[in-house]
Specification:
Elements lengths: L6 E4 L7 H10 L10 E7 L2 E9 L2 E6 L8 H11 L2
Antiparallel strand pairs: 1-2, 2-3, 3-4
Length: about 80
């Protein structure tokens, strides 16, 4: 999958570190972060620009507006599915 040069998608260890937790909360404010069983984050220039979170009975994905439509959404979905 081809992503913009500055973007990488990662599956961080759970529970999320405090900085990643804050970024995930900003992107997916309704997600029960304490119950997350899989997470994929998109990072560009050291900032979290996207998140795909999975928990029992639900999931959420969000991406900063300026990054939409570049294949990042599909990469997040694929990475989160690998973490299940």
């Amino acid at each position: 999958m081809s992503l913009p040069a500055r973007v990488r998608v990662t599956r961080p260890p759970l529970p999320l570190a405090p900085a990643l937790h804050a970024a995930a909360l900003r992107l997916c404010p309704g997600a029960p972060l304490g119950d997350v069983t899989a997470a994929a984050l998109a990072i560009a220039g050291g900032a979290v620009i996207g998140a795909h979170l999975v928990w029992p009975g639900g999931e959420a994905q969000a991406l900063d507006t300026g990054w939409r439509g570049r294949g990042i959404e599909a990469a997040l979905t694929q990475a989160a599915a690998q973490g299940r």
